[in-house]
Amino acid sequence: MKAELSRRGRGGFARPSLYAVVAGLTLSGCAGAPAPAAGPGAPSDPRPRLSAGYQNAEEAAWNLELVAHVPRPEGFFNPQDPGDFDFANTDMAFRGNFLFMGSYNGIQIFDISDPENPRLRSSLVCPGGQGDVSVHGDLLFMSVEETRGRVDCGAQTTRAGEPQRFRGVRVFDVSNLDAPRQVAAVQTCRGSHTHTLVTDPDEAANVYIYVSGTGQSRLDSELAGCVGAHWRNDPSTAYWRIEVIRVPVAAPQDAAIVNMPRIFADEETGAIGGLWEGGPVQAWRAGIGADQPVPRHHRLPGDRAGRRRLCGERHPAGHLRSGESTPHRRYDGPKLRLLALGDLQSGRHEGDLHR
After folding, report:
1. Is the bond preceding residue 216 a cis peptide, omega within 30 degrees?
2. C-alpha angle with apex 321: 316 to 326, nearest 5 degrees?
3. So what's the pLDDT on residue 319?
4. Residue 54: its pLDDT value, please?
5. What distance, in Å, lies between the first and last C-alpha atoms of the chain?
6. Residue 84 CA neighbour count, 13 Å, CB half
7. pLDDT tens for residues 46-81?
């Protein structure tokens, strides 16, 4: 099939088709068709001939049609540097016809009832990254791991040990979509790179947030109980674990950590890092020396039926090992139609973890 070269714009509607929503994320071989047979740079490959630009860059599409594009609103881009990663969009959550977009600089809420004419409903500047989001009813959860995060969502800088510094999970009341309101901010030792929302069919009064941190641990002087050491040196280390936050649906302001399971522990030996010792990249991020690796995990999916189970994780070193290329996956379904919101930037361990 031939790749089609066209400028960004809206095309005719043809069924059957699927809508794909992209929120300023990097795309790489996910549920996509393989590239045309010719390799990059070949005469039939249009990509080397595309003109650059910010809102008017040329595009090459194959089995994909762009039907709408919504530029980022004020406060969610740097006019002096459009590629500033401090404003990158990171994640999306859905509730009915509404899309909640997380970013390194806050949240945006879109009405996507008409996919060809998405409308920004509201936005809230709240820096801190990573900004991954989940939604449950009228509650929105947002991950924060950067040291620039503040409890009050302010843009001012904070120093280590200041009470306003925030790294963890924010909870917003989004019952009024035009005015999202933060109702809780649960601090964690390593912040939250991402998280997983887990519900329990036998416990409708609460939802649980499984927190995945990848950053360096805080000092105990900043948050009591945080220990940035290798588990062999201190078994109370903040590494080799996740945090589980219980959020009462009727009183989200009472959200709190209820468990910190050692998901890499070897049950037979008791070794905290017995199932996986980590790697040098994670050791560098943790700041505890390349000879003392630590684990890094991403989103921790729960069981869809709501059972209290942690059933998988991303490869601790990331999606790919160094030197590996992203494989193409064959997609033989209907043509995908792309809705772009923002700008595109160039083991198993089971158990009742929240009990």
Report:
1. no
2. 115
3. 31
4. 80
5. 53
6. 14
7. 888 899 888 788 888 888 888 888 888 988 998 888
CA-only gyration radius of the chain, Å: 22
User: What DSSP letter does each residue of 143-190 carry, written as one string?
Assistant: EE-STT-BTT---S---TT-TTB--EEEEEE-SSTTS-EEEEEEE-SS
Q: Most distant CA pair in the chain: distance in Å?
A: 63
Those residues whose C-beta lies under 8 Å from the C-beta of residue 346, and which sit 6 or more positions away, are 26, 83
Q: Taking a C-beta distance cutoff of 8 angstroms, is the pair 184, 255 a contact?
A: yes
Looking at residue 254, its amino acid is D
Two tokens, residue 342: 């923002």
Q: What is the pLDDT of residue 347?
A: 32
pLDDT per residue over 116-148, tens digit each?
Answer: 999 999 999 999 988 999 999 999 999 999 999
Instruction: Tell the residue number behind the tokens 């601090």, with chain if given.
Output: 187
Specify whether the CB–CB gap between 309 and 319 falls below 8 A.
no
DSSP 294: B
> Strands 64-70 and 335-341: what pairing?
parallel
Cβ atoms within 10 Å of 114's Cβ, excluding its own: 10
Are 233 and 217 a contacting pair, CB within 8 Å? no
Q: Taking the model in full, what pTM does it have?
A: 0.75
Residue for token pair 């000879």 = 291
Token code pair at residue 28: 């790489």
Is residue 209 a contact partner of residue 195, using CB atoms and an 8 Å limit? yes
Residue 201 pairs with which residues in a beta bridge?
A: none
Q: Classify residue 316 as exposed, middle or buried by CB count within 10 Å of its CB (0-12, 13-18, 19+).
A: buried
pLDDT beneath 50, residues of the chain: 1-17, 25-37, 41, 281-282, 284-286, 290-293, 301-331, 344-355
Task: Round to whole Å and give the CA distance between 48 and 12.
Answer: 26
HSE-up of 222 (CA within 13 Å, CB side)?
Answer: 22
Q: Where are the beta strands (DSSP E) in the chain?
A: 4-7, 17-22, 58-61, 64-70, 89-95, 98-103, 106-111, 119-125, 130-136, 139-144, 168-173, 181-187, 194-199, 206-212, 243-248, 256-259, 335-341
